[in-house]
Amino acid sequence: MTEDSLIDADSAARVGTVAARATGEVHRLQWQRWAAAVGDHNPLWFDPDYAQASGYDDVICPPLFLQYAVLGVAALADLRPDGSSGAVSGGLSFPRAPRRMAGGEASTFHLPAYHRDEVEMTRTISSIVEKQGRSGRFVLVTWHTAYRNQDGALLAEATTSMIARP
Amino acid sequence: MTDQLFFEDVEPGDEVRPLLVTVDQTQMFFFSAATYNGHRIHYDTNWATTVEGYDDVLVQGPLQSALLARALTDWIGGRGRLVRYSVQNRAVAYPGEELTFGGVVTAKRVDGGVPLVDVDIAGRRGETVLMPGTATVALPRREDGE
Predict the structure, then answer these.
(1) Residue A37 sits in a domain of what CATH number?
(2) Among the four residues A110, B44, B61, B108, which has the most C-beta atoms within 10 Å?
(3) Which chain B residues in 16-55 lie under 8 Å from chain A, judged by CB atoms?
(4) Domains identified in chain A, total number
(5) How far apart are CA B139 and CA B8, in angstroms?
């Protein structure tokens, strides 16, 4: 790391460490409200008979909802001025690259989650690298996130990235 | 409700049945509530325009992503399974714009005995790609049918 790196030493030292850990209960009513907000009335999320006829034990949690089942409680006094909680990034900040935007997200779904499953999310910082783009230097942060149920079975994994610019 | 799609029915070049949605602020409010998202950029027009410099509040990226996944899960039916899903946020969308979510099959393969289909997917506004991505779905074979 050079003197003028966008990546400060504190952030660099966190590569490979756990950025966030969270647990939550998967709840049918919550995922059904989410699905309705998406206009997604797939009977796999709503109809136990249909889900069983499709090979499941019961209605299943929509795969993309799983990430919200572990969201914590945000105290209003702790919110950023823009109303967001900032918990997902594990508090990483880059003083020399304060403008952040979401990059991509790639998820692999291994097993379905059911009502009242207890899910544990573990988010690890995979890499923090400085890159040169068309519009200048930026920092690319990549996280790996694993979701496991109460039996320790891996339900889903995700690789998420964020871009921070000076 | 949804027709079942089988592995044998799909060939590279086939289209995912497109989903057309015009998101309005009521849907955005319910989606922020359902995802516990307090970000003002999705409901505070004054914040979105004055502080953030956008033309209006922004449709949530995760809502666009969920709509794109819905296009896939509607298409593959109850016995199909979303295995891998990868998207990037490339451009913003505003409420009131007609968005299209769909994709094109790029490959068929069998991995460990599981019939898989790879799809290039995208959320679009007209010709503008807002959210490109790739996905893999597992489909049942006809001979396994009930």
Answers:
(1) 3.10.129.10
(2) B61
(3) 21, 27, 30-31, 33-41, 44, 47, 51-52
(4) 1
(5) 9
